[in-house]
Design a protein that fits this description.
Elements (H helix, E strand, L loop, with lengths): L16 H27 L2 H22 L8 H17 L10 H19 L2
Length: 123
Amino acid sequence: LIGWPETDSPEVADLDDAQLKIVREHMELMEGYIGKYSQMEHDGDLDGMTDTLIRITERVAEVRRLYQPDFPLPTFAEIRRVVQDEWDEDMGKIDPREDNPTAGEIEEETESADGAAGEGGQA
């Protein structure tokens, strides 16, 4: 959604020791959240994953804010709107069948398409 500047960009601030310590703290928190996220993913805990992903993103935003204090970071509401718009657009591209085929009809179409693909590959 948003790009990162080159490290030598004039937009990137040079941090002092206190700010670098804050960056390190955010990174350590982020690493801990990533470990928790992986475990939640393994456990199928979608609600926990969602909450943890927000926490990870918050840490990234805090680091970004230190390095680029003038960069306007999008809010979660803005990000959600963009993602929802893209999802809706993608879902609108799916052409649902009007005739509601049966599972058997879908299987026949698949076999027919596989057979045609196999014949085209033989020479």
